Amino acid sequence: MNVLEVRDLKKNFKAGFVPRTVEVLKGVSFSLPKGTVTGFLGANGAGKTTSIKCILQLIFPDSGSIRFFDGLSLSADVLKRVGFLPERPYFYSYLTGKEFLNFYGRLSGAFRSRSDLTERITQLLRRVGLNHAGNRLLKDFSKGMLQRIGLAQALMHRPDLVIFDEPQSGLDPDGRLEVANIIRETAREGTTIFFSSHLLPDAEKLCDRLVVMKQGKICYEGSTRELLHQTNRGATIYYSAEGNLKTLNVEDDKKLQVEISRLINDKKVIQEIKREHVSLEEAYARLAK
Q1: What does the DSSP assignment read for 119-167?
Q2: In what order do the strands lie in the sheet with 244-250?
Q3: Are 25 and 10 in contact (CB under 8 A)?
Q4: Tens of pLDDT along 140-193?
């Protein structure tokens, strides 16, 4: 089952003193299988935020189709199953953390009783590490604390799909780790997660799948492991010959199999095969060329 399917999405804007048409989305297509964590990668201006806004009807595409939960168009009932944290969320600074979550919980209509809502607020404050700050005004929250209360808001109504736009942006290493742990815990519960990010090492650790944009088009969609495998730097074979340990470098899997067979036929003893894995940053750099 696909939780989200985007097909041939196009969006143009008018820009400049003398308006000219800027083509931002040039036929964007991708899907999100249920229960996956998918990273949405691309340079500034690639079209990630525009795509997310089109998906949630914060702006409207010029053409294309967007379907949720195996074929449903966006509606009030569908929105009840979707959580969202924008890149630059607005917080009511005069509310406490508990009041903020209470407001969004009541707005969602997902709770049958006040006690259920209160229990959910307590659970989420604990999950995001803000149990001690529930009665503190949001104006006194740090950036990391605001990001975490924003994550709690997006998860308030137990959505089936959560969309985060740069959830770790601007956070220190501790804050990034805390947000990553929240994403992992949410994914373990079966929630499908889709988030944009510029922090490639974090995306590499968190994401089962990747959707990579370049200049308004999708240049890669698939598993994180497969992308890294496609761009590996080969392998090194360590083998014994004439009492000495020797090495042999190979460029790809096909040559690796050939050399292994040759060494075995030559009665050499293979001690170890070590793959030279690339990082997601290196794989992304090759895609973005």
Answers
A1: HHHHHHHHHTT-GGGTTSBGGG--HHHHHHHHHHHHHTT--SEEEEEST
A2: 244-250, 235-241, 269-275
A3: yes
A4: 998 889 989 999 999 999 999 999 998 887 778 888 888 888 899 999 989 999
